[in-house]
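[job 0417] fold request received: (Mediterranean fruit fly) hypothetical protein
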Amino acid sequence: MMSKNGHNNPTFIDDSAVSDKATKRYSLELAEKGGKPAAVVAKDNGYDYNPYDNREVEHPTTNSETLFHLLKGSLGTGILAMPNAFRNAGYITGTIGTIIIGFICTYCIHQLVKAEYELCRRKKVPSMSYPSVAENALLEGPSFFHKFAPYISHVVNTFLLIYQLGCCCVYVVFVASNIKSIADFYLDEPVDVRLCMVIILLPLIFINWVRNLKYLAPFSTIANAITMVSFGIICYYIFREPFTTEDKVAAAPFSSFPLFFGTVLFALEAIGIILPLENEMKTPKNFGGSCGVLNVAMVLIVFLYSGMGLFGYLNYGAEVEGSITLNLPSKDILAQCVKGMLAFAIYITHGLACYVAIDITWNDYIVEKLSTQRSKLFWEYVVRTSMVLVTCK
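[job 0417] inference complete; emitting structure tokens
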């Protein structure tokens, strides 16, 4: 997730091809990505300009590091909902459907990365953000679409906001539901899940008040370790009993397929991190390709998601919950530990998940309208608090 910084390293942009607003954005992105001006003025057709050769990243990531980040960004609460997704599709239809959706997602990501590269080559800039890619795609397309170019960035930002805030809402529901599951076992009266949301609200606001990603990184590392251990324990519960296809649906009615499709798409797609990861690579050419970072990551992700969905559904059948953690034996201390650990892991990474939404809202639409530094600081905390309240509402 990238934040926007001031620039001191502008580069030449062809003003006849790019609007003043787009030019300003390119300069900001060059500073953000460490871009440098081309040593030799490229030809008008742009074939002498290679965006990869003009990127200067302060801390470039290796192929393996990028692979790890991509896996980390994709393996979240979505994988725990895969057994429920298979209940809505059937174990045969679900397996085939997950593979097909995974293929479509991978293809679309490849197209996005290729489009960014081609637009960067034509505009002679090292990298672009999502809004810039959309805007310049319209500028490079038929003349009919040129008039929509100034507005498309807002459309893209809107969808990114909806996606990121939706993920944060899922995080809050997941944490509250698992806390409720543990509390109900020890208390005489069942706890309202909304009460659990209120309890976690104030600390959640404080987590999202952290303005520097550097201070959130340790929480992400801890959460990753907890998540891996928890997944191992969940697999133990799934595989400790023999599977059977009796009373399991091979192909569910089509009316429930949209629920399957939405769950799998939410679980698989980590579209918000694709371009930032590719732009930060030491060897960005290795991101694509038949054996590139993206394909390797997506094969592993689809395999893990299909396995969790298939075997989780075969184990629990129609009784599978929205999150498989809720199907674990409530009396087992080990199962309670898994619920608590995953709830804690997701809870402390809420700030990272909400960072993109805060960044878009604050830097693209609010900060430029404020004059004094004091007012900026006050309203930034208001925005951060409001985002948390939206996800908990």
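[job 0417] notes: DSSP finds 15 helices and no strands in the chain. The first helix runs from residue 20 to 33.
[job 0417] exit 0
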